[in-house]
Amino acid sequence: MAKIVGGISMSHVPAIGNAIAKNLQQDPYWKPFFDGFPPVRAWLDKVKPDVAVVFYNDHGLNFFLDKQPTFAVGAAPQYVNSDEGWGIPSLPPFAGDLDLSWHIINQVTRKDFDLTTCQEMVVDHAFTLPLKLLWPQDGPCPIRTVPICINTVQHPLASARRCYRLGQAVGQAIDSWDKDLRVVVIGTGGLSHQLDGERAGFINKEFDLKFVESLTADPEWSTQYSIEELVELTGTQGIELLMWLATRGALTGKVRQESFNYHIPISNTAAGLLVLENQ
Q1: Edge-first strand listing for the sheet containing 144-150
Q2: 12: annotated active-site residue
Q3: Domain 3-278 coded CATH 3.40.830.10
Q4: 193 carries an active-site annotation
């Protein structure tokens, strides 16, 4: 049977690509952020996943305001990245896992989730940068991928509870897959930040840390809040924490915090990195 080894939740700030391209990992501004990754890579070397199921939000590369699915799942043999002008070159295509994609789609649809199935899908920095940070070696990403896109761009957005339930359905689908497969679930975005308007630069460290703590001790804690309340607490773009919540929902056993790093600010963003091992 397939096994979920754990979940990684992390920020996907576009400027990270520029820092990677210019080898700024030891620059004082960036070093506290990049220093969080060696322990995570060591953990990945230990658990050796075959596939990454990635919850992320698209920024207009694949979906735009005229067509914005609430939940979309990739079912393609590969996912192509386009350079968004932030400095990192376009990366080689990311290999898909068609069998697992279709299994997830079928199983999650049976749990009354209406999914958009994408047999062609391009991916932006929210998908590519986290994978590059976790597997920084040259060449293609060494594991297969299943992208799951959650709308955080255009209202109405799915509630926090709905996104947590989506994660649960995805985790149950993976657990029911009758192949010997090791899966890591990745959620990308957040934590608190707002890039525009009167609250541009807004960061809520107190809420960020309480939210991260809740993912281990009380994972449904944040589902008490409406989307509007979460935006008030975390900023307009901070709503990307929905990806962290879906990732936690997918972890089907008890969890243990393996690693955590929090650094502010990176490009006006509270940058977080959390690893929860599935027990």
Answers
A1: 116-118, 71-74, 144-150, 51-56, 182-188, 3-10, 269-278, 255-266
A2: no
A3: yes
A4: yes
